[in-house]
Amino acid sequence: MEVQSIIFPNGMPLQCGEVIAPLEVAYQTYGTLSPKRDNAIVICHAFTGDQFVASPHPVTGKPGWWSRMVGPGLPIDTERFFVICTNVLGGCMGTTGPTTMRAGTDKPWGKDFPPITMHDIVAAQVKVIDHFGIEQLFAVIGGSMGGMQTLTWATDYAERVFAAMPIATSPFQSAQNIAFNEVSRQAIYADPDWHGGDYQAHGVIPARGLAVARMVGHITYLSEEALTRKFGREIRPGTMPAPNSPLAALPFGGMFQVESYLQYQGSNFTRRFDAHSYLTISRAMDFFDLGSEHGGNLAAAFQQVRTRFCVVSFSSDWLFPTAQSRMLARAINQAGGHVSFVEIESDRGHDAFLLEEPDFDRTVRGFLNGAARHAGLPEGRDDHAV
Amino acid sequence: MEVQSIIFPNGMPLQCGEVIAPLEVAYQTYGTLSPKRDNAIVICHAFTGDQFVASPHPVTGKPGWWSRMVGPGLPIDTERFFVICTNVLGGCMGTTGPTTMRAGTDKPWGKDFPPITMHDIVAAQVKVIDHFGIEQLFAVIGGSMGGMQTLTWATDYAERVFAAMPIATSPFQSAQNIAFNEVSRQAIYADPDWHGGDYQAHGVIPARGLAVARMVGHITYLSEEALTRKFGREIRPGTMPAPNSPLAALPFGGMFQVESYLQYQGSNFTRRFDAHSYLTISRAMDFFDLGSEHGGNLAAAFQQVRTRFCVVSFSSDWLFPTAQSRMLARAINQAGGHVSFVEIESDRGHDAFLLEEPDFDRTVRGFLNGAARHAGLPEGRDDHAV
């Protein structure tokens, strides 16, 4: 697997007190950094995402996960902006994580990879930005767990973020989301190939448990409406009783399309993702709670922040419901910050931020154009188009 | 385990074509059957429920699952009505199911237990009603999968059901619910103690997989609000870093209360429920689709039905959302049936039907009193109280 990356030999200290050294951070860039280094946008990827925002995934060969949003002339316009996306700390696409060989040993970190937080994940990204000599980012943008990173950027490094777009996210991980993550973790632990976390030493992966974990996650990314429209109660061809049988309406021994879809999603996922990475990153999400880190006062997190925010939610997102985005927007407002808040009408659930949603595209383009004017960046070719 | 049951030596034919013989149906009754045998109410239990509606569970010792609803002077008043609840076919509390020894063999049915449907489940209940010499039930009542049985009663045996109360249910199993069930099934299959379904022969149970299945289910029974109110992001005592540590806000190595609660629910469940029963009954739910069994016309299912219906949903139930109950009520109405529809405001999710909800209690009491007057039953002591 060929990836761009930077190695920091001295590594970095983590919030838990341990030090990761050396630290490698893998990344992709799109567009060109301006001579003033004032046009950089960091895109933060979601839980099981990666740095291949707008270029094909080296394992699956699929197009970049946000290639409809990031590119020449697209809402995040790479003719105008320099886009950087790093694989998160703890990930498995080139950045140091549980699959990385641990220095001074002949084994990967595996289950000994330390617990990490959003602060650690963002601190690793800061090292890359420093490496590029960028003082202030024009913007940080991210959906879902990418939104948690965006909020962490804007509060831990306020002076380095001109504009921020937390999308389909929340200022804290809810009890329900912790609960779903815990189901996923227990499914991994229950796999016979888990071996108490030592699966790497046994040359296996807990593929079935990881697949179940992914299946749980996948349902939460969609909406009931989306699943109904996509599959409804359709039966997979070839698994139904004869059409004249009185059982034709019932898939005895058969399978619903939605089941085979989920199974495919689950088993496919295990080709590209590591179980320890899954556990490490899901834990980092569960830890995230911006308010409690500021004495239970979410507004206090934004007291000194002059970043311009655009908070975006999707109406049918039940993983990160609109109420949580509204709470965030209210807190920024209460702290005297700049914030606009948009709820996009969509029936496609949490995943809507990755899909064709024209209102969302217009929101991203409009916010970036407006912020670019305030930042004094040269005008874009579509600056007046929206 | 001591249970009341009836054995039907000739068994019963199933919709799939197989015959289960002998058939044992375990049940509990509360109250007294009137001399005219016109005061019987069948209560249908939910997926993992049982016949112990209002008496302690013989395995867990816990009070009956609806003891706040069923009893002397309660909304389903056992001073007035004769209540019958049977353990569903395929269950594991005394009714023939996968844990039952298969006649002519020295093994339980196990993975060879045939696929069953709601029609089969209700047909087994009909045998018990026949045994009691009851021609027409005063009412059939059930929540969740109990509601699917209620609808099956009212459509397969319309002339035998005077009134019906489908609660927190749907005329079909949605794609999302099939998806959650499939995750649960895959979790069971992934357990090393599953042994291709032959766990009984190995003297083990796939307890971890079954626990994960239960954890998934349990989340879907609650609401985000209920989980937040009950647990929020609370940490289990004794698992937190020292309070003065900079990590005090983060449960490194610790555990959220919601996780330990779910784990407890999961592992507790495996003491009282069989994995094959779980698979068999979850499949029966997935098969359920009243509309498609009537050529895609849900109203057609109710064309000849003169049963009085009261359809009840709960506003925060996302497993069986109000829209599905509304669709049901509309179809009955379209078929010229008697139907009232009540959405109870509650933020406790699907489980609300089992919990203290005064509006719901009033609805049940009011509907039964009204129906009893129409049925010409003697007045109850609280007939004018509501």
From TrEMBL, chains A, B:
<comment type="function">
    <text>Transfers an acetyl group from acetyl-CoA to L-homoserine, forming acetyl-L-homoserine.</text>
</comment>
<feature type="active site">
    <location>
        <position position="350"/>
    </location>
</feature>
<feature type="binding site">
    <location>
        <position position="351"/>
    </location>
    <ligand>
        <name>substrate</name>
    </ligand>
</feature>
<keyword id="KW-0012">Acyltransferase</keyword>
<dbReference type="Pfam" id="PF00561">
    <property type="entry name" value="Abhydrolase_1"/>
</dbReference>
<comment type="similarity">
    <text>Belongs to the AB hydrolase superfamily. MetX family.</text>
</comment>
<feature type="domain" description="AB hydrolase-1">
    <location>
        <begin position="39"/>
        <end position="356"/>
    </location>
</feature>
<protein>
    <recommendedName>
        <fullName>Homoserine O-acetyltransferase</fullName>
        <ecNumber>2.3.1.31</ecNumber>
    </recommendedName>
</protein>
<dbReference type="InterPro" id="IPR008220">
    <property type="entry name" value="HAT_MetX-like"/>
</dbReference>
<dbReference type="InterPro" id="IPR000073">
    <property type="entry name" value="AB_hydrolase_1"/>
</dbReference>
<comment type="subunit">
    <text>Homodimer.</text>
</comment>
<comment type="pathway">
    <text>Amino-acid biosynthesis; L-methionine biosynthesis via de novo pathway; O-acetyl-L-homoserine from L-homoserine: step 1/1.</text>
</comment>
<feature type="binding site">
    <location>
        <position position="214"/>
    </location>
    <ligand>
        <name>substrate</name>
    </ligand>
</feature>
<keyword id="KW-0028">Amino-acid biosynthesis</keyword>
<feature type="active site" description="Nucleophile">
    <location>
        <position position="144"/>
    </location>
</feature>
<feature type="active site">
    <location>
        <position position="317"/>
    </location>
</feature>
<dbReference type="GO" id="GO:0004414">
    <property type="term" value="F:homoserine O-acetyltransferase activity"/>
</dbReference>
<dbReference type="InterPro" id="IPR029058">
    <property type="entry name" value="AB_hydrolase_fold"/>
</dbReference>
<keyword id="KW-0808">Transferase</keyword>
<keyword id="KW-0963">Cytoplasm</keyword>
<keyword id="KW-0486">Methionine biosynthesis</keyword>
